[in-house]
Design goal:
The complex is a heterodimer of chains A (about 500) and B (about 350). Chain A is α+β, with helices and mostly antiparallel strands and about 500 residues long. Helix content of chain A is about 45%, strand content about 15%. Chain B has a two-stranded parallel ribbon. The chains are: A alpha+beta (about 500), B mainly alpha (about 350). Chain A: It comes from Paenibacillus taihuensis.
Chain lengths: ~500, ~350
């Protein structure tokens, strides 16, 4: 004779928060097994026991019991492994006191237990546009997406990833839009995974990425609802992971990291202008300090005569070579930034003032750096913040340093070598099997309407060619009929 | 007969425009003028036009003899000469492409050594360049083709010609047409080397998608190069006197030197550094061709031949001690390149017509 299921359950669940209680309903005894840390007291009484207390004809079998509970997630089971698994995930196991070896698994776990409900997208802030962000709970995230794109074309495909965590991971895509090739690649990579605990999509991203030895992010990750929706309607695959407030989409290109959702909320002229400013910021941030090193170490003769005076004047008291001077300031800035991001908001504001202004001024006064370099370094730090996505700004922070060292070794030639190496790297990169720097290579001139600049919506009716969508057209352009022709109607 | 190249390794047919263009823009652009004016003087631009138009015939021949049923020149050699002799000839072409790469690489290093870093050690720089080559070539042909595309972004640099034109003297071009046809053709022969690089098409032909449909782009590439060099030689002739020009080492750089902005003097530094965007894909294409032939003809995998090739390139680049040695190499390259493109390819074309007909009738 098998031991009683109840005792077997008790024996295998050693944790102190595992509860087994007996409830007497009418004349029947009912055994409940559950984790009290997963099932809240209120839910247990409100959602389950209150229905059982209603007077009825009597409970003889589990089917009678099942009929009484108005919940859909009820399964009848006698398999110990299955029971153990679902109890660990937050279900209640119900048993009648008739010596039988089966019972009901009732899922009344509260998914919101211990989770925040809203996220104000503070990491990807924009002045215009919705400030709805994803939260740690996957059901809320999915319902946000579903409400945003109210169509049956939006497909969620759920998988359980992680040998220990069994985290719910959802692949979202638009049917008839997203190229099935991307969906298959994403699905295959997720299913081939063997990893114990999946904490975050950022972690998942590194596991399923095309090239893990790259400083460049190969998936776009965002906590903004509008950005992910935009990626979805353009034929990308989104991967949502339970417990993570950021969603990753792919295949992506390097240009999409410079795009801010705000570009689309502003008139196209403004949007394009700000986007160009951002490109300039990226270039400046990567190159400015290495140019300084190259010019002052080797090519002082390319500075015109009128400009040479101020530079010499500000550097005359500095005892270090340009490389050390630059590295000193760049590392200081990196320290400030790193410290600022680890501190509470209130403290980091103070730190910014102390570190930024006082330290910089003192360094110049003490003759450790020149004024001009201080301007360049702080400008390039400022410029690196213009990128809307955190990950690419990390890449920009990092790429500066090898370029500075190369500039010290071979001047302008070294910078060019570094840039060519980066270009070669970008050409080799792939995101979910698609080239990373389209529309530049392979060259797609019709995708340029929304890459370097953001054109008017009368020109953006087609989806990005870069994701090879199944349906090309997004909407048809109609001219507003009430706009008259002021010039020809006299 | 080889297997067709897999779809995801091929590139669009119009990319020949960039690949041919980038090879022809390489190191020669800095010093081609001095060699050409010796024969045709102020009419050298006519010589370049003659040879540029003539080269379209060579391109037409290449597109005609490749494709069906022969995919590249290695197949063609095997069809015409049989397996062993054909492969032996293909192996000779490895040497040809290697010398091309070596010259391109070393000529650019020479410019850097003379113009920018007179005291730098050659081998340190060469070692870093070799690393870049390895990284790019090991990415496969698509990456190399992508690289060649970016040379197009240097085209706006041509606007600098405005400065030498402003200071130039139009009378230097006069009297026009006072050279005999023989002299003009002599000049054409001397200027053949500025068009080297199109012969790599014989090797990467199977990597092009629908090559016949896009053959016009190869012709455009030749026309664009012709146009570029004609403009450049006219500007050079206006800026220099012919006596001075024959003794100028790098006339193009000497002309860029005069440009000055409020934020930038010594414009030629920018020019030299940016030109790396042309040199790197050119050397990569040549070395890739070497490894490709070796892969097709022998059992050696590119995984082995590529590091070996680059190691030899590194050693060979370091053996040059003096400028005269580079000039010797340049003369040698100009000779074999000329014979390869203008003698060997037409001969191969004529033989291939008969050979293919024979194969088809069997």
């Amino acid at each position: 004779m098998l031991p009683n299921l109840k005792q077997a359950l008790r024996a295998s669940m050693k944790s102190d928060d595992f509860m087994q209680t007996t409830v007497v309903i009418q004349d029947k005894q009912l055994f409940l097994s559950f984790y009290k840390t997963l099932v809240s007291h209120e839910q247990l009484h409100h959602d389950l026991l209150s229905f059982l207390m209603i007077p009825n004809e009597g409970i003889d079998t589990l089917d009678d019991l099942k009929a009484l509970i108005p919940l859909e997630n009820i399964t009848l089971s006698s398999d110990l492994t299955e029971i153990r698994k679902s109890v660990s995930e937050g279900s209640i196991f119900l048993q009648l006191d008739d010596g039988s070896n089966d019972g009901l698994i009732v899922d009344i776990s509260d998914p919101m237990l211990g989770h925040r409900i809203n996220n104000d997208t503070e990491n990807e802030y924009s002045v215009l546009g919705p400030k709805v962000g994803f939260v740690e709970n996957i059901d809320i995230n999915l319902s946000l997406l579903r409400r945003g794109l109210g169509t049956e074309k939006l497909i969620f495909e759920e998988h359980k990833i992680g040998t220990l965590s069994r985290t719910r991971v959802v692949i979202a895509y638009m049917e008839d839009v997203t190229n099935p090739q991307h969906i298959n690649t994403a699905r295959q990579r997720l299913l081939d995974l063997d990893f114990d605990v999946v904490f975050e999509t950022a972690l998942l991203e590194q596991l399923i990425t095309d090239n893990s030895n790259s400083p460049f992010p190969l998936f776009l990750s965002s906590e903004r609802l509008d950005r992910i929706m935009y990626s979805l309607i353009n034929g990308e695959v989104a991967i949502i992971c339970d417990g993570s407030p950021s969603v990753i989409t792919g295949p992506t290109t390097i240009f999409s990291f410079i795009i801010s959702p705000e570009d689309y909320y502003l008139p196209w002229i403004m949007g394009s202008f700000f986007r160009l400013i951002r490109y300039f910021g990226v270039a400046f941030s990567i190159l400015a300090t290495s140019f300084y090193v190259a010019i002052l170490t080797f090519h002082y003769n390319i500075i015109p005569r009128d400009l040479l005076g101020p530079i010499i004047e500000s550097r005359s008291n500095v005892p270090f070579p340009p490389l050390l001077e630059v590295l000193f300031l760049e590392i200081t800035i990196e320290l400030l930034r790193e410290a600022g991001s680890r501190l509470p908001t209130k403290v980091s504001q103070t730190l910014g003032i102390v570190g930024g202004i006082i330290l910089g001024q003192a360094a110049v006064a003490a003759g450790l750096t020149s004024n001009i370099l201080l301007i360049i370094v702080s400008l390039s730090a400022l410029a690196s913040f213009t990128t809307p996505i955190f990950k690419i700004s990390n890449t920009i922070r990092f790429l500066r340093f090898p370029l500075i060292v190369l500039a010290y070794l071979w001047g302008g030639l070294g910078i060019m070598m570094g840039l060519i190496l980066i270009l070669g790297h970008l050409l080799r990169l792939k995101s979910l099997g698609s080239p990373y720097i389209v529309p530049l290579f392979p060259f797609r001139y019709n995708s340029f309407s929304d890459s370097i600049v953001r054109s008017s919506f009368t020109m953006l009716y087609n989806r990005f060619f870069t994701t090879r969508p199944l349906t090309q057209q997004r909407y048809t352009v109609r001219k507003n009929k009430d706009i008259g022709d002021d010039y020809n109607n006299e | 007969m080889q297997q067709p190249v897999q779809e995801n390794y091929t590139i669009s047919g119009y990319f020949v425009f960039f690949i041919i263009g980038v090879c022809q823009a390489a190191a020669n652009i800095f010093n081609f003028q001095a060699r050409i004016v010796r024969d045709a003087g102020q009419d050298s631009w006519i010589s370049i036009i003659i040879i540029g138009l003539g080269l379209n015939v060579i391109i037409w021949m290449i597109y005609k003899m490749l494709g069906n049923p022969n995919k590249d020149v290695i197949d063609l050699h095997q069809t015409i000469f049989g397996k062993y002799i054909g492969n032996a000839i293909s192996l000779l072409i490895v040497g040809y492409f290697f010398f091309m790469a070596l010259f391109c690489f070393r000529a650019y290093m020479e410019i850097i050594l003379v113009w920018v870093f007179p005291t730098a050690k050659v081998w340190t720089m060469a070692a870093f360049f070799i690393c870049i080559f390895y990284y790019v070539i090991s990415g496969g042909f698509r990456v190399i083709a992508g690289f060649s595309f970016f040379y197009l972004f240097l085209t706006p640099l041509l606007w600098w010609l405005y400065f030498p034109v402003k200071q130039g003297e139009f009378h230097n071009l006069l009297p026009m047409f006072n050279h005999s046809v023989a002299e003009l053709l002599q000049g054409s022969r001397a200027s053949g080397f500025i068009f080297f690089g199109l012969e790599a098409l014989l090797i990467y032909f199977p990597f092009l998608k629908e090559p016949e449909k896009h053959s016009k782009w190869a012709h455009f590439a030749i026309l664009f190069t012709t146009f570029k060099y004609v403009v450049l030689i006219i500007v050079t002739l206006m800026y220099f006197s012919q006596g001075l020009l024959q003794h100028a080492l790098w006339p193009t750089l000497a002309m860029t030197k005069i440009i000055e902005f409020s934020f930038l003097a010594r414009f030629e530094y920018l020019f030299i550094f940016l030109w790396m965007l042309v040199i790197v894909p050119t050397v990569c294409i040549y070395i890739w061709c070497c490894t490709r032939i070796l892969k097709r003809v022998t059992v050696l995998k590119p995984r082995i031949t590529l590091p070996a090739m680059l190691a030899i390139l590194f050693i060979a680049a370091n053996t040059f001690k003096e400028r005269t040695q580079i000039v010797l190499l340049e003369n040698f390259i100009n000779k074999i390149g000329f014979y390869f493109i203008f003698i060997y390819i037409p001969i191969l074309f004529i033989i291939s017509i008969f050979a293919i007909r024979r194969v088809q009738s069997n």
